[in-house]
Write a sequence for this structure.
C-alpha cells in the first residue's frame, strides 16, 4: 500500500480552546497534526519539526520577521477569557511578584504589561515550578484547562487578563495565531485553516460536549467558553490589539524588533 504523502506538518495547542481551530484537520489528506502546550510550539516551528504552528503571538514578534502570520484564524478574546487568570492574596495594585505558569509566553508578557501600564507597578515574574504548590504562592498566573477546577478558593483577588487588557486599551486581545516561515508558500494551507476554523465555530457547542469532560470541564461551562468567550477570527480590531501588544512589548525591551506582523 502506498504511504500517504504529508504536505503539511502542523503544530497546535493541546487545550480545549483550540478544538474549534483544528476541527477536521487530522482527517485532511496530507495533514499531520502535532499537539503541544503553547510555549513548546515556537521551538517546534523554529527547529523545523512542523511547517506551521499555532504559536503565542509574542513569539511571532520575537521571531524578528522570520515568520509570517498565515491566516485570520487564531485564539483571542474581546474581554474575559476564563482561562488566563491571575489569582492573588493581595490587592492587584499591591502585587510585586507573580508566580507564572510558563506554558504561555504571551500570557506572561501580558501580565507584566498590564501591571506596569494599568496598575502602575512592575512585576517580578517567577516560574511556577511543579514542586511549588499554588497554595504557597502570594500571587499566581494560571492558564488553559488547568484553571478549571484549580484549588484557588484561598485567593481573595482574581484578574482575568483578557478583561484587564480590554479595560486598559479598549481592544480585543489575540493570544495565538497560525505562523509559518516567511518564505513558505501558504495559500492552500491558509484556506485549509480557515475552513477548519469555520467548521469548528459552527460545531463549537458540540465540541464542548465531545472534548470538555475528558479535559475535566463541566459541559455547560465548556459550551459557554467555546461559543461566547473565545474568539477565533482575527478581525481588524483584534489585529490592532495584537499590534498594540507587540509594540508595548517592544517598548519594554521584551521583543527585539518593531512589533508589526508580516502578512
Amino acid at each position: 500500500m502506498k504511504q500517504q504523502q504529508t504536505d503539511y506538518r502542523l503544530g497546535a495547542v493541546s487545550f480545549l480552546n483550540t478544538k474549534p481551530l483544528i476541527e477536521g484537520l487530522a482527517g485532511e489528506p496530507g495533514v499531520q497534526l502535532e499537539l503541544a502546550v503553547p510555549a513548546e510550539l515556537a521551538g517546534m516551528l523554529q527547529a523545523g519539526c512542523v511547517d506551521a504552528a499555532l504559536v503565542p503571538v509574542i513569539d511571532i514578534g520575537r521571531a524578528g520577521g522570520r515568520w509570517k502570520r498565515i491566516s485570520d484564524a487564531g485564539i483571542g478574546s474581546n474581554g474575559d477569557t476564563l482561562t488566563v487568570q491571575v489569582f492573588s492574596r493581595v490587592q492587584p495594585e499591591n502585587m510585586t511578584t507573580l508566580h507564572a505558569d510558563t506554558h504561555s509566553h504571551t500570557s506572561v508578557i501580558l501580565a507584566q504589561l498590564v501591571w506596569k501600564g494599568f496598575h502602575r507597578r512592575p512585576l517580578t515574574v517567577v516560574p511556577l515550578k511543579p514542586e511549588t504548590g499554588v497554595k504557597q504562592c502570594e500571587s499566581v498566573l494560571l492558564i488553559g484547562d488547568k484553571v478549571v477546577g484549580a484549588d484557588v478558593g484561598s485567593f481573595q483577588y482574581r484578574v482575568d487578563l483578557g478583561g484587564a487588557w480590554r479595560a486598559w486599551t479598549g481592544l480585543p486581545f489575540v493570544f495565538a495565531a497560525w505562523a509559518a516561515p516567511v518564505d513558505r508558500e501558504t495559500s492552500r494551507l491558509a484556506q485549509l485553516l480557515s475552513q477548519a476554523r469555520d467548521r469548528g465555530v459552527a460545531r463549537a457547542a458540540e465540541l464542548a460536549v465531545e472534548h470538555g469532560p475528558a479535559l475535566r470541564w463541566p459541559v455547560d461551562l465548556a459550551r459557554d467558553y467555546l461559543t461566547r468567550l473565545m474568539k477565533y477570527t482575527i478581525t481588524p480590531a483584534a489585529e490592532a490589539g495584537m499590534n498594540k501588544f507587540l509594540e508595548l512589548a517592544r517598548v519594554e525591551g521584551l521583543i527585539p524588533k518593531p512589533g508589526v506582523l508580516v502578512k
